[in-house]
Amino acid sequence: MVEDAISARDVRKVYRTRGQPPVEALSGVSIRVPKGSRISLLGRNGAGKTTFLRIASTLLLPTSGEVRVFGRDVVEDPEGVRPLIAVVPQEGKPFFHLTPREQVYTYLRSRGFVRETAKSRTEEALSLMSLGEVADRLNVTLSGGQRQRAMVATVISTQAPLLFLDEPTIGLDPFARRGVWETLRLLTRRGSTILLTTHYLDEADVLSDRLYIVDRGRVVGEGSSEELKRTSGGTLRVTFQAPFSDGSGLEGTLSTFGPVLKEDAGGSLTLFTGPERIQELMAIAMARKVPATVGPVTLEEAFLRLVGRSIDEEDSGGR
Amino acid sequence: MAAEMGAPRFSRWQGALGFMLTELRVQGHETLALATSMIVQTVFIVFVWVLNRGLLPYALLGAVVFSVFQIGERVTNESAYIRIDHRLTDLYLASPLTPEAYFLGMATGVMTAFLPPVFVLVALIEVLHPLTWFAALVFAAVLVALWLFASAMGYIFSTLFLDSRAIWPYSSLFYNAFGVLPPVFYPYAYWKAIIPHSLEPLALLLPPSASAALVTWAEGLPLANLSGGEVAMASVAIVVESLGLFLFAVYWARRASRER
Ligand SMILES: Nc1ncnc2c1ncn2[C@@H]1O[C@H](COP(=O)(O)OP(=O)(O)OP(=O)(O)O)[C@@H](O)[C@H]1O
Ligand SMILES: [Mg+2]
pLDDT grade, residue B3 (50/70/90)? Predict the structure, then answer.
C-alpha cells in the first residue's frame, strides 16, 4: 500500500487563550497530500493555513480530527513523525549571530548528520539559494530577503521526506522566487513531498500539483489549478470594451452566460467562461462592433471568485 | 528514495551536542553580555573588599554560586527569544532533535559560554584562599546540581509567556531575589543573626544559599559552622530539588513542544 505523506481528516482547532473568547481556526479540514507531490494551501489572512501546518508538523495539538504523516498519527506518535519532516516557520528568522553557512551546518549537525554530509549539504543548499556571496556574513547584517533565503536553505538542506514551508518566498525578489521554485521541483524529483502556503498565486499556479483553498477554517476549493479555474466559472476571461450603461442591452445579453463584472469604472464588461462558448461570444462582439479580448483566467481571479462566493454564502447563511 | 526515511537514527539525547554548539557560537558573539553577567558579583566583591576583607572568601565562593545560578536567567531569556522573536523553536522541534535534547543543548551551551568569567573567579579563589580537596569536591557537586536546577527553572519559566519582553522583569527579579537576599554572598551565621529562628532553614532549602552554605562549610570557614542536621538538610534539599526539577523540565519540554 502506498500511504500518503499527509492524510488529514476532519481537523478542528479551537484556540483558547485565558481571558479571551475562543477562536475556531479550523472547522473540519480534510486534506490529502500524496507522496512526492507539491501541494499549496491558499487562503486569506487568518484562514487557518498556519494552524493546519503546525498541527500536521506536530507543533500544535488539534482539538479534534486525525492527521497522519506517512501513516503515523501526529498526536499519538510525534516522535515518529518529527525525524521525517522539516519546517520553514512563518516569519522565522535565522540566528542573528550566525552566518548562513553556520546556520545551515549547525542545524544539520543538530539533526544528527555527520560532519561530511552536513558540510556538503550545507554547500549545496547555500548555492541553491544563491547565498554564496553572503554565506560568511552574520545573518544580522543581511537583507530581509537574504535572511528568508537562509531560512529556506536551512530547511531544504535536510532533504527531509516531507517539507512544510509557510510562506517561504515572502519578501523574495522575482529571481530568488524562481530559484526557490526550481529547488522545490528538484526536491520532489528526489523524492521529497512538499506542503506550502503562499499569497503569490502565480507561484502557487506554476508550483503546485494540487491546491487547497481554505477560508474561515474550511476547505472551499480543491483541485489542480485548471480544475479550480473551471469550478470558479471558467478558464477563459472575455472582456468587452463597452460602457455598461450605453443602453445597448449588451450587459443583459452577456449575463445569460454567467455573472458579468463591471470593470474600469464601468468602461468594460468581463465574464468568465469555457472555450466551448467563445465562438458565440465573439459573434456577439462582431455583431455589435464592440472590441473584445479573450485571455486565460489567472489563479488569482479564480481564487477571488471562489473565496468571494464563500464569503457571500457565509454572509447570507444567517450567521 | 533519495530523501531517506527517518534520516540518521537518533537517540534521545544525541542532538544535544549539535544544538549546544549552535548555542555556543551564538553566545560567543555576545562578549559584552559575558562581562555584564559579572556585574552583581563584582559589585559585592568590591564592597566586601572595602568593608571587611575577612569576609572575602564567602563573597568569592558566593560569586561563583551566583554566576551558576544566573545561568538560569540566561536560559530563560535565550529560550524565549529563540521561540518568540525568531520562531526558531518550530524549526528545531519539528526534527529528530528531541525536546529534551533541545533543552539540554541550550542549557549546556549557555553554561559553557558563561564559564570563562567563572574561571576567573575560581582562579581568584585559588590565589586568595585555596580550597581543600574536600571543599573543591563539594563545590563541584553543588555547582552541577545548581546548574541543573537553574536551567530547568529557566527553561520551564520561558515557556509560560507569549511575549519575550514580558519575561525580562520577572526573570531578573526572580534570579536576583533568590541569588542575593539569602546568604549567598555573606555567611550563613549572619543570616541566622537576622532571621527569626523558625525561618532559618529556608536558606538551606533554597538551592543557591544551600550551595553556598555547603561549600563554605566544607572549606571550614568559621562563620559557616553547620550542624550535622543542617548539612544533611542542605545536601538532601539541593539533590532532590535539582534532580526533581530537571526531570520535571524534561517532561515539561516534551509537553511544551506541542502547543495547546
Ligand atoms: N495562538 C493563537 N491564539 C488564538 N488565536 C489564534 C492563534 N493563532 C492563530 N489564531 C487565530 O486563528 C485563525 C487562523 O490563524 P492562522 O495563523 O492559521 O491563519 P493563516 O491562514 O496562516 O493566516 P496568514 O495568511 O495571515 O498567515 C486566525 O483567526 C487567528 O487569529
Ligand atoms: Mg499563516
Answer: very low
Q: What is the pLDDT of residues A174-215, one digit of tens each?
A: 999 999 999 999 999 999 999 999 999 999 999 999 999 999
Report CA(B258)–ligand 1 centroid distance (Å): 16
ipTM score of complex: 0.89
Contact A160 B26 (CB under 8 A): no
Q: What is the pLDDT of residues B221-257, one digit of tens each?
A: 999 999 999 999 999 999 999 999 999 999 999 999 9
DSSP state of B22: H
For residue B30, pLDDT over 90 is answered with no
Dump strand ranges (E) for B100-226: none
Q: Report A:124-163 residues touching B (Cβ under 8 A).
A: 138, 151, 154-155, 158-161
The SS3 assignment for A236 reads strand
Q: What is the DSSP string of B65-118?
A: HHHHHHHHHHHHHHHHIIIIIS--HHHHHSSSS-HHHHHHHHHHHHHHHHHHHH
| DSSP helix/strand/coil, A71 | coil
Q: Provide the shortest C-alpha distance from residue A136 to chain B (in Å).
A: 14
Mutate to test the pocket of ligand 1, among A12, A15, A167 (most ligand atoms within 8 A of CB): A15
